[in-house]
């Protein structure tokens, strides 16, 4: 039982950190996608 709790403690932190980083990166990716779409629209108007 103690070994199981130790494993949960060791694995839980990296999982929580990964989820946190993925959530933060998702927002940045959405902003980047929107910026690329705007840039594409501007470039299409110029051509």
Number of helices: 1
Number of extended strands: 0
Mean pLDDT: 89
What are the secondary-structure elements, in order, as H or E? Answer: H
Structural class: mainly alpha
Descriptive report:
With 47 residues, the protein is mainly alpha-helical. It has a domain at 21-47. Helices cover 96% and strands 0% of the residues. The protein contains one helix and no strands. The protein has one helix at residues 2-46. The radius of gyration is 20 Å and the shape is rod-shaped.
Helix-strand layout with pairing:
Elements: H1 2-46
Q: Quick recap of the structure?
A:
The chain is mostly helical and 47 residues long. It has a domain at 21-47.
Properties at a glance:
single chain; 47 residues; rod-shaped; mainly alpha
